[in-house]
């Protein structure tokens, strides 16, 4: 079986993957104007400052949009069919949407607005943040 492709961190996204490896979700924040942005960039997209830092976020999110993939476009994904590619809106970083997979859910049960929480998937040397429906206490 072929392994799923892993993201390749670069100089701007390295903090994101390093935090994920520690079980934390972080986005890029501007130290000058406070803007948060995703994906990471070389400069603040609001004020062009290069003073950027990693800001931890809770990992709670809301499903914004999704599509269900029923045909594997790479053999590594065959066993995951059907799977969901989604954009999720971070609850404590307004305007930030992360493209991700929704895991641990029947795609038919998902809809925009659903509450989600981050989980982490190990792919080779890289830890990939993914999201699942928020787990209710006691179930
Ligand atoms: Zn800024």
Structure description:
- The chain has one helix at 14-21, and strands at 25-30, 36-37, 52-57, 60-69, 83-90, 97-102, 115-123, 126-133.
- The protein has 139 residues and is mainly beta.
- The chain has two domains: 8-57, no CATH class; 58-139, OB fold (Dihydrolipoamide Acetyltransferase, E2P) (Beta Barrel), CATH 2.40.50.
- Strand 7 (115-123) and strand 8 form a beta hairpin.
- The longest helix is centred in the first third of the chain and has 8 residues, at 14-21.
- It is globular.
- The structure holds zinc ion.
What is the total tally of β strands? Answer: 8
The oligomeric status of these chains comes to single chain
> What is the CATH top level name of the largest domain?
Mainly Beta
What are the low-pLDDT stretches, counting only 5+ consecutive residues below 50? none
What distance separates the N and C termini? 34 Å
Mean pLDDT, to the nearest integer, reads 94
Which strand order do you get reading across the main beta sheet? Answer: 6-5-4-7-8
Instruction: Catalogue the ligands.
Output: zinc ion
Overall helicity: under 10%
CATH architecture of the largest domain: Beta Barrel
Tell me the overall shape: globular
Radius of gyration: 16 Å
- Percent in strands: 35-45%
Helix count? 1
Q: What characterizes the major β-sheet?
A: 5 strands, antiparallel
Classify the fold: give the CATH topology of the largest domain: OB fold (Dihydrolipoamide Acetyltransferase, E2P)
Which structural class do the helices and strands define? Answer: mainly beta
């Amino acid at each position: 079986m072929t392994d799923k492709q892993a993201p390749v961190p670069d100089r701007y996204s390295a903090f994101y993957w390093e935090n994920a490896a520690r079980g934390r979700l972080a986005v890029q924040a501007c130290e000058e104007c406070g803007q948060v942005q995703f994906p990471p960039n070389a400069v603040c997209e609001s004020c062009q400052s290069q003073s950027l830092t990693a800001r931890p976020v809770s990992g709670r999110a809301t499903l914004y949009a999704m599509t269900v993939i029923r045909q594997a476009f790479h053999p590594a994904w065959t066993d995951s069919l059907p799977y969901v590619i989604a954009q999720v809106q971070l609850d404590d970083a307004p305007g930030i949407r992360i493209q991700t997979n929704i895991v641990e859910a029947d795609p038919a049960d998902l809809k925009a607005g659903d509450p989600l929480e981050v989980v982490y998937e190990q792919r080779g040397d890289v830890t990939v943040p993914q999201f699942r429906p928020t787990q209710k206490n006691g179930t």
